[in-house]
Design a protein that fits this description.
This protein is an alpha+beta fold. The protein has a single domain, classed as Gcn5-related N-acetyltransferase (GNAT) (Aminopeptidase). Strands 1-2-3-4-5-7-6 form a 7-stranded mixed β-sheet, sandwiched between helices. β4, α4 and β5 form a beta-alpha-beta unit. α1 crosses α3. Keywords: Acyltransferase, Transferase. InterPro entries: Acyl_CoA_acyltransferase, Bact_Acetyltransf, GNAT_dom.
């Protein structure tokens, strides 16, 4: 297998982030959600203005996993006020680890997670946290394997639908 390279994303990577986000979210969640709710979520979350706003937020960082010239996944982490919930200055939120289904089982998610750990350590954070859909058993298992524990639940809106996310954290 060709080595995977992780690079920090910039505004120039906006389209790449949009494309990977739409593709991976669809691959992971389309079978479990209505077409209408999926389309609404994808339009809200990956439109140009939204992604530009996220990429230019100084409290959010994006990293893209590349296999040669092919982007195969990305990581989004948030600190401070960019965090979707806790907004604890001592924590880093992993908002997204998205990997194309063609690269599941090839350690891309692990490399992106490792980048999140390194980022948290560089920013001197005490813990990392995230929310993961209660029905995404593959992701829950991945995070448990990496030392995360459940500490709460919250509601995630997919379009107009409310779903339950398990909130997990790992003390560094």
């Amino acid at each position: 297998m060709t080595p995977i390279i992780i690079n920090q994303a910039t505004l120039e990577d906006l389209e790449t982030i949009q494309n990977i986000g739409r593709q991976t979210f669809t691959e992971t969640f389309a079978a479990s959600n209505s077409e209408e709710e999926m389309e609404k979520y994808l339009t809200e979350s990956f439109n140009t203005e939204q992604v530009r706003s996220e990429l230019t937020n100084p409290d959010s960082l994006f990293y893209i996993a590349w296999e040669e010239d092919d982007p195969v996944g990305y990581l989004k982490v948030n600190s401070g006020s960019a965090q979707t919930e806790l907004q604890d200055e001592t924590s880093l939120e992993i908002e997204r680890i998205y990997v194309k289904s063609s690269h599941h089982g090839k350690k891309v998610g692990q490399l992106l997670y490792q980048q999140a750990l390194e980022t948290a350590q560089a920013l001197k954070k005490i813990y990392i946290w995230l929310g993961v859909w209660e029905e995404n058993l593959r992701a829950i298992q991945f995070y448990k394997k990496n030392g995360f524990v459940e500490f709460d639940k919250h509601i995630f809106k997919l379009g107009d639908e409310e779903q339950t996310d398990i909130m997990m954290k790992k003390v560094l």
